[in-house]
Specification:
With about 90 residues, this protein is α+β, with helices and mostly antiparallel strands. It contains four helices and three strands; from the N terminus they run βββαααα. A three-stranded mixed β-sheet has the order 1-3-2, covered by helices on one side.
């Protein structure tokens, strides 16, 4: 997992979406409450990886970000997952 320099990581349970990357403010916000209520298992990690992909590749199309995230998730080790989760405690 590469770090994203200059980005702040926030939990914002008032978001109407699972996550949001603000390029101007350089923040990644995750709605943990919404993700935990989701029937799809692993939605929180999916949202975190998705938003981190946006931050690393700001010009990448949404469809491509989804594909990259879906490809990346099954390859993550437990240690990598813990690092992602730790940013949003």
């Amino acid at each position: 997992m590469r770090t994203i320099k200059g980005y702040k990581h926030k939990v914002n349970n008032k978001l109407k979406v699972f996550g949001k990357t603000d390029f101007d403010k350089r923040t990644i916000s995750i709605n943990k409450k919404k993700a935990k209520k989701s029937p799809a298992r692993g939605e929180l990690l999916d949202s975190i990886v998705h938003e981190h992909t946006h931050a690393r590749h700001p010009r990448m199309a949404e469809k491509t970000v989804r594909k990259v995230t879906a490809t990346m998730l099954p390859t993550l080790s437990r240690k990598q997952k813990k690092k992602y989760y730790a940013k949003y405690q």
